[in-house]
């Protein structure tokens, strides 16, 4: 794979977004235009599905970002690889490579050393939106022994409709979709493999996503019976563990415990930001807690995370 300075050593890095006109691609383009740290090179719209034209764009780029359906993303990776020494580094926003060998998972705050691994990687997979929320809650607890790897975990989540890409956006905006629905009830949502792999779970969790009639915003929640956990921790213990894990992180914060007194949380508060925040609700009498991660599915759940990874990869 090529090194970081190819092919424009000394100049601003060149970035090609394959799928630039889609929901995720546009979000990345807007953020990169605002930052002005890289030169985005764009393909003529009528050539956006022409393999030869895309390959030439890849040749001219230091980094390509794939904002494509999974099959097209796999094809794009082959196109890039066919360039041999001239191949750019790859950041894939699709689901295609998130648990694939040779790929680094693009969630820098997930674990110690992950940001450095992303910075040095040739192939980075941008996480799924729900998976980002779930792993943000699970991983620090599993790493600290507070949640056993084989604990029976159930995760609930609600997303804005932009999570479904252009077709779902069109359906909601033309009032052709329900106000709210649960889905993924075959219990095999596409984010389960990455939640399990990077949440360090030995046992398949139950994941129940839902979508509501709002464009963007997301809540991912993890209910826990505290007395079934090793040492029967309190909600405050879980809060302390999460706060210690994310101390100093720029894009992930643990809300002060007093905020949980409200007993409620709304989904849209972090819209148009690249942040994720974590809230720990609990009831000591019943020995129960509900941990909630809140994010913008298009921000830390997609385009914001991609730009964070791009900046790590290119050192900009
Ligand atoms: N929406 C979200 O919140 C998130 C989405 N993702 C992932 O990002 C990827 C893109 O999703 P999203 O932006 O929502 O999807 P969209 O449907 O909004 O956009 C997909 C884009 O890819 C283009 N495209 C499709 N097939 C090809 C091809 N063979 N060659 C070149 N371009 C192609 C489409 O063009 P055209 O419309 O002309 O067919 C469109 O511009 C998906 O893999 C999705 O899983 C990741 C994180 C979050
Ligand atoms: C509401 C909705 O349909 N959401 C999508 C996930 C969106 C997303 O971000 O997933 P990827 O990053 O893996 O594309 C779904 O459940 O399939």
Automatic annotation (TrEMBL):
It is an enzyme of class 1 (oxidoreductase). GO terms for molecular function: N-acetyl-gamma-glutamyl-phosphate reductase activity. Pathway: Amino-acid biosynthesis; L-arginine biosynthesis; N(2)-acetyl-L-ornithine from L-glutamate: step 3/4. It is found in: Cytoplasm. The keyword Amino-acid biosynthesis applies. The active site is at residue 129. InterPro entries: AGPR, AGPR_AS, AGPR_dimerisation_dom, AGPR_type-2, NAD(P)-bd_dom_sf, Semialdehyde_DH_NAD-bd. Its EC number is 1.2.1.38. Keywords: Amino-acid biosynthesis, Arginine biosynthesis, Cytoplasm, NADP, Oxidoreductase. Residues 14-118 form the Semialdehyde dehydrogenase NAD-binding domain. Belongs to the NAGSA dehydrogenase family. Type 2 subfamily. Catalyzes the NADPH-dependent reduction of N-acetyl-5-glutamyl phosphate to yield N-acetyl-L-glutamate 5-semialdehyde. This is N-acetyl-gamma-glutamyl-phosphate reductase. It comes from Pseudochelatococcus lubricantis. The lineage of its organism: Bacteria, Pseudomonadati, Pseudomonadota, Alphaproteobacteria, Hyphomicrobiales.
């Amino acid at each position: 794979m090529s090194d970081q300075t190819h092919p424009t050593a000394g100049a601003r890095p060149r970035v090609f977004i394959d799928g630039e006109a889609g929901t995720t691609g546009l979000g990345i383009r807007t953020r990169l235009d605002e930052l002005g740290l890289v030169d985005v090179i764009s393909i003529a719209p009528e050539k956006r599905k022409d393999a030869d034209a895309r390959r030439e764009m890849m040749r001219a780029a230091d980094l390509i970002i794939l904002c494509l359906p999974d099959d097209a993303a796999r094809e794009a990776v082959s196109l890039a690889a066919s360039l041999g020494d001239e191949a750019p580094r790859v950041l894939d926003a699709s689901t295609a490579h998130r648990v694939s060998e040779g790929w680094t998972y693009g969630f820098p705050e997930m674990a110690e050393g992950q940001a450095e691994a992303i910075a040095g990687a040739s192939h980075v997979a941008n996480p799924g939106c729900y998976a980002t929320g779930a792993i943000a809650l699970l991983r620090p607890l599993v790493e600290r022994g507070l949640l056993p790897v084989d604990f029976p975990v159930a995760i609930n989540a609600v997303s804005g409709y932009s999570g479904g890409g252009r077709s779902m956006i069109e359906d909601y905006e033309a009032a052709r979709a329900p106000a709210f629905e649960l889905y993924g009830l075959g219990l095999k949502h596409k984010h389960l493999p990455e939640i399990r792999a990077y949440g360090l779970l030995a046992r398949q969790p139950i994941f129940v996503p839902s979508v509501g009639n709002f464009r963007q915003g997301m809540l991912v929640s993890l209910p826990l019976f505290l007395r079934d956990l090793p040492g029967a921790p309190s909600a405050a213990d879980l809060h302390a563990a999460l706060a210690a894990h994310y101390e100093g992180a720029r894009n992930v914060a643990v809300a002060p415990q007093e905020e949980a007194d409200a007993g409620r949380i709304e989904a849209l508060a972090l819209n148009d930001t690249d942040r994720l925040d974590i809230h720990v609700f609990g009831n000591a009498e019943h020995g129960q807690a509900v941990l909630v991660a809140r994010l913008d599915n298009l921000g830390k759940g997609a385009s914001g995370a991609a730009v964070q990874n791009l900046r790590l990869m290119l050192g900009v």
